[in-house]
Amino acid sequence: MSDVLSDLPASHSGRIQRTALHDTLVGRLRDMIIEGELAPGSRMHESQLGEQLGVSRTPLREAIKYLASEGLVELVPSRGAVVKRFTGKDVHDMIIVLKSLEELAGNLACVTATDEEIARVRRIHDEMLRCYKAKDRLSYYKLNQAIHTEISQLTHNEALASMQALLQSRLKRIRFIGHEGPEKWAAAVAEHEEMITALEARDGRALSEVLGRHLLKAWERVKDSI
Amino acid sequence: MSDVLSDLPASHSGRIQRTALHDTLVGRLRDMIIEGELAPGSRMHESQLGEQLGVSRTPLREAIKYLASEGLVELVPSRGAVVKRFTGKDVHDMIIVLKSLEELAGNLACVTATDEEIARVRRIHDEMLRCYKAKDRLSYYKLNQAIHTEISQLTHNEALASMQALLQSRLKRIRFIGHEGPEKWAAAVAEHEEMITALEARDGRALSEVLGRHLLKAWERVKDSI
DNA sequence: ATAAAAAATGCTGCATACAAAATGCAAAAG
DNA sequence: CTTTTGCATTTTGTATGCAGCATTTTTTAT
């Protein structure tokens, strides 16, 4: 059931054609940055990276430009690209914005979502719970992200969903750190219980509130470790 | 005093080095899309566009990828890039998100802005008023945009400012249409008076409210002409 | 005459080649 | 011993060439 994790833009194009090299490269580089394989502040050597990934410099450079527009990479004229380094303030700023967007999404989703869509989120939630009980941190983490992504998509607001996805992706590297202690993890799970309850009750106010609170607590968890 | 209009990301890099070709190309293409020189839905022929702009396909393709990440251009596998076409719902969705962001910005700006920064917005506002009285629509329009950009930047929240700028830039093409009648124009100016008053009083609640209202009315003006 | 198949055209996608700029090192001058 | 200057090497930036896919036109068969 790993297709649940696929956080592709989904691009709702009926066409089946699989992702071109460009998309693959962008995804691969994004992962390398998020996982820390490409360290913040490090230069991205084109020929070396290209050889490592088995592509020439041309498509690689195009992918890098794409990521630069996403904000994961910084372009330095005549000196190529470096992985963007985020300060604690940067992270806080992003969380503030993400909080605002997710609160909006929570409010809208309770109005616009179909029953089937809500049921789908419930299924992801239940699976996440299983991973929590199994102490499977990585799967838990991915399903957690998927739920936030899903809720944004329930709004059927493409602009909102894509901005949420953008910020969430920038923060992935950070969120990875969270959930140190079991008690904090339990608290986060409890908040997710609140979310799904509010969503199923179509209580936008409650959903919005818990989403915002969830993010602020996430910030509390990571703010000292940056 | 046209440097007031410069809505560059400003990138606060101390370095003086002027924009490389990449940045120039991105800006030029963005303008061509916003001004309508490149019509929505039209294919962007690489060789033709490259010849027109005096560059080869390679840097042009890199610029197109950048714009694709910004959402102005859509990449179709094996068929190149097309200028993204926005439906009325798309525009409405973007305005909903922009409203949320500007409301947040209004609240934050009243806390974070320095007196000098507020004075600067006042100067832009006054100049905009002059353009209004002179019926100079284009200058008015640009200063109007500049004010919204400035307010977002007063938050000193890079993520917020860049997202606001991104959405505003996508909506530029649309906003151009607005302000048909003199009475509606007058109403918009009145709202801007409210804004600057609220900002100088550091009344975040009021600023936030008028920013949101301003955007909703903008939607009312354009919604039937899309 | 119409429809299906096949060839031809044009464009994109990727790789390679070339040019310009930057970095590092070494030698010489202060 | 430190600093500066010039050269060599490395790396980025841009142009061009070639292969493959998409679309269109032409050809052929019913």
Mean pLDDT of chain A: 90
**Number of separate strands of chain A:** 3
**Biggest β-sheet of chain A: count, sense, barrel?**
3 strands, antiparallel
User: Can you tell me the CATH topology of the largest domain in chain A?
Assistant: Four Helix Bundle (Hemerythrin (Met), subunit A)
> Structural class, from helix and strand content of chain A?
mainly alpha
CATH architecture assignment name of the largest domain in chain A: Up-down Bundle
Low-confidence stretches of chain A: 1-17
What is the helix content of chain A? 55-70%
Regarding quaternary structure, what we see is homodimer
- Strand line-up of the largest beta sheet of chain A: 1-3-2
Largest interface, by Cβ-Cβ below 8 angstroms: which chains and how many residues each? Answer: A-B, 34 and 34 residues
First-residue to last-residue Cα separation of chain A: 34 Å
What's the domain count of chain A? 2
SSE order of chain A: HEHHEEHHHHHH
Question: Rough shape of chain A?
Answer: globular
**Helix count of chain A, per DSSP?**
9
Q: Just give the CATH class of the largest domain in chain A.
A: Mainly Alpha
Fraction in beta strands of chain A: under 5%
Per CATH, the superfamily of the largest domain in chain A is: GntR ligand-binding domain-like
Rg calculated over all Cα atoms of chain A: 18 Å
What does this entry look like structurally?
2 copies of one chain form a homodimer. Chain A is mainly alpha-helical and 226 residues long. Helix content of chain A is 69%, strand content 4%. Chain A has 2 domains: 12-83, Orthogonal Bundle (Arc Repressor Mutant, subunit A), CATH 1.10.10.10; 88-225, Four Helix Bundle (Hemerythrin (Met), subunit A), CATH 1.20.120.530. Chain A has a 3-stranded antiparallel beta sheet. In chain A, strand 2 and strand 3 form a beta hairpin. In chain A, helix 4 (88-112) crosses helix 7 (158-175) and helix 6 (137-154) packs antiparallel against helix 7 (158-175). Mean pLDDT of chain A is 90; it is low at 1-17. At the A-B interface, helix 3, helix 4 and helix 7 of A face helix 3, helix 4 and helix 7 of B. Chain B binds a DNA duplex (30 and 30 nucleotides) through residues 20-22, 43, 45-47, 55-59, 61, 77-80.
